[in-house]
Amino acid sequence: MPDPKARPLPTLAVFGATGVVGTVMCELLTSRANVWGEIKLLASPRSAGKLARCRGEDLTVQAVGPDAFDGVDVAMFDVPDEVSRQWAPVAVAAGAVVVDNSSAFRMDRDVPLVVPEINAGQVRYRPRGIVANANCTVLAMIMAIAPLHHEYGLRELVLASYQSVSSVGRFGVDLLHNQLTRVASDRTLGSRPGDVRRAVGDELGPFPAPLVLNVVPFTGELAGAGWSTEELKLRDESRKILGLPDLKVSATCVRVPVVTGHSVAVHAVFGSEVTAERAREVLRNAPSVIVVDEPGNAEFPMPIDAVGTEPTWVGRVRRAMDDPRAIDFFVTGDNLRKGAALNTIQIAELIARGPR
Questions:
Q1: How many Å separate Cα 96 from the centre of its chain?
Q2: Beta 62-63 vs 39-43: how paired, if at all?
Q3: Rounded to whole angstroms, how far apart are CA atoms 60 and 198?
Q4: Alpha carbons 139 and 111: distance in angstroms, whole number
Q5: What's the rounded Cα separation, in Å, for the pair 172 and 21?
Q6: How big is the chain by its Cα radius of gyration, in Å?
Q7: How confident is the model at residue 2 (pLDDT cuts 50, 70, 90)?
Q8: Residue 31 above 80 pLDDT?
Q9: Pairing mode, if any, of strands 248-255 and 154-163?
Q10: Among residues 26, 54, 136, 253, which one is catalytic?
Q11: What does the buried/exposed string (b/e) look like for 73-85 if buried means 16 or more CB atoms within 10 Å of the residue's CB?
């Protein structure tokens, strides 16, 4: 006989359910322990009526609207910033807690920025009814940075990111494959100035230059003093997640011709001396981290191996050449899973299991 005092399972809404990350959210919800009652899939009106697979069922996607969040306890958002700003207050007013994967609220002092393995307790402080998910590149590296910070006391980060095209959605993936098709038959390309640009033509999409046979040393939008918005996110979000408001961070963000998987080369300076051996031990004992560090056997973390997996992969761990308090290492992770969908789900599950 059911316990009359038992709480009913909370209702979850997934807003942006038909996008790249929303699709991964539904996939992960199917494979994880069930803490939800009803699940509602929401999207823009143009996607309404589509079927999406979630928890073993084909659910009909509903159009977002003023009443879409009625009866919803937790709403996971994966939509553009301006859409989050429009609909998050609507969802909160309807009684839902919003877990937002956009950058709209991350640096709001009244919105916690949560990585459950690092600062789960912050999820309880949500005066605006919103919890923010971190940037996908930040999530790739912060899983390795946090345990080393707790061991040695982090002082400074110098970062170079290598970001895949899937972070801009299916369009970015299709664009890369289209460019690959255009250049595949000409093996002379890449040997003369401008030949790749001419082969690709005007099909650049949101990127400032061709992706194929190239790397582009800029991601995001141009911000102050020549920095990009993506580079500032690496600094500002790392500070907030780790609780280090004065952390020194310098970053260069690079777009690379990889479908899925963000990588970061990290130079980390600490308050005490660090050895590569001890750093590897700390990382091996850290949650959601896999150490792959046998360069002599060609074993190091790469996006082609990390794609489709949930942990952060770490390797090339070595003490800095000229500073015994610093180490260098390389991290990579699936930007659609832990970098977006999985971390959002983990936050939502913390809320579902706690007091509502």
A1: 23
A2: parallel
A3: 44
A4: 17
A5: 13
A6: 21
A7: very low
A8: yes
A9: parallel
A10: 136
A11: bbbbbbbeeebbe
Q: What is the number of residues in the chain?
A: 356
Q: What is the rounded average pLDDT of the residues 98-124? A: 97
The confidence score (pLDDT) of residue 6 equals 62
H-run or E-run covering 268: strand 262-270
Span 229-285, pLDDT tens digits: 999 999 999 999 999 999 999 999 999 999 999 999 999 999 999 999 999 999 999
Look up 262 and say whether it is catalytic.
yes
Confidence band (pLDDT; 50, 70, 90) for 1?
very low
Q: Scan for tokens 């659910």, then name that residue.
A: 59
Is residue 230 packed enough to be buried (19+ CB in 10 Å), middle (13-18) or exposed (0-12)?
buried
Helix extents (H) in the chain: 20-31, 81-93, 116-119, 136-152, 170-183, 195-200, 229-242, 276-284, 303-306, 342-353
At 88-100, the pLDDT tens digits run 999 999 999 999 9
Amino acid in the structure at residue 169: G
Q: How many CB atoms lie within 10 A of CB 295?
A: 12
